[in-house]
Amino acid sequence: MIASKQGVSVLIKFLIFSLLITSLLNARSNPFFPSEGEVDIPHTSNKSTAVAPLKRATIELPAHARILQKVTIEYKNLDGSVDTKSIELENSVDWHLPIFISQNYSSSSNKSKASKKFKKIVSLKYATYYAFGKTLKIVTKDKVIRNFLLTDPHRIVIDFKRDLSLRSLNIPIENSIFSRVRVGNHRGYYRVVIELDGHYRYTMKPYKNGYIFTLR
Question: pTM for the full model?
Fold first, then answer.
């Protein structure tokens, strides 16, 4: 009789142990726990996390920037993770103008472009200087014998062939990329120095009434 009771007790303990093991093994299938391979999405509350909508952001470029090669946006996803998205570009830019980031559609690109209108910035006896954006037009009959670029500050030096006597000039130019014009007299030629408002390279080409300098 005693042996029979002991056998029943052992059997009960075995059944309890088996049920406990089975419960532990099946715990991962509980719908309240993520199973293997599933991602546990962070808990969110009803607390307001409203972020102001994007209107317009501005990025200003340094004076030596010339070509925009890539734009990269870093953004936050719904689950809080951070990703980036890029677009490859190869476009020239004017560093004077800021880069805007906006979700507002603008129809300004459909407007007709204003015609080029050069503004007279300096008038000398033998030459007149006109500017429009990054273009300088010099109306003169004098021949350019040399031209080159100097730095600190960036300036274009132009020597014109003419033997004349004139006093030195130093003329500041307001609201122009060509910020100052200086003129000096030398034996057999006179020198014009055109100061720039930033870092540039330039090209020069003659035209029927003089020369055109284009910055880039």
Answer: 0.60
pLDDT digits (tens, 9 = 90+) for 106-135: 544 444 455 578 999 999 888 999 999 999
Q: What domain count does the chain have?
A: 2
List the CATH number of the domain containing 128: 2.60.40.3500
Residue 63 to residue 215: CA distance in whole angstroms:
13
Peptide bond into 153 cis (omega under 30): yes
Q: Answer yes or no: is 155 within a domain.
A: yes
DSSP string, 98-145: PEEEESS---GGGSPPPPP--EEEEE-SSEEEEEETTEEEEEESSEEE
Burial class (CB in 10 A: 0-12, 13-18, 19+), 105: exposed
| Neighbour-count burial for 154-171, b at 16+ CB within 10 Å, e otherwise | bbbebbbebeeeeeeeee
DSSP string, 45-90: -SS----PPP-EEEEPPPTT--EEEEEEEEEE-TTS-EEEEEEEEE
Q: What distance in Å separates the CA atoms of residue 182 and residue 193, rounded to the nearest whole number?
A: 5
Taken in order 116, 122, 123, 125, the sign of the CA dihedral is negative
Which residue is associated with the tokens 């020198």? 191
Is residue 48 situated within a structural domain? no
Question: Helix (H, G, I), strand (E, B), or coil: what is residue 3?
Answer: helix
Query: Could you read off the pLDDT of 36-72 as tens digits, one per residue?
Result: 444 444 444 445 467 888 888 899 999 889 999 999 9
Element (H, E) at 23: helix 2-25
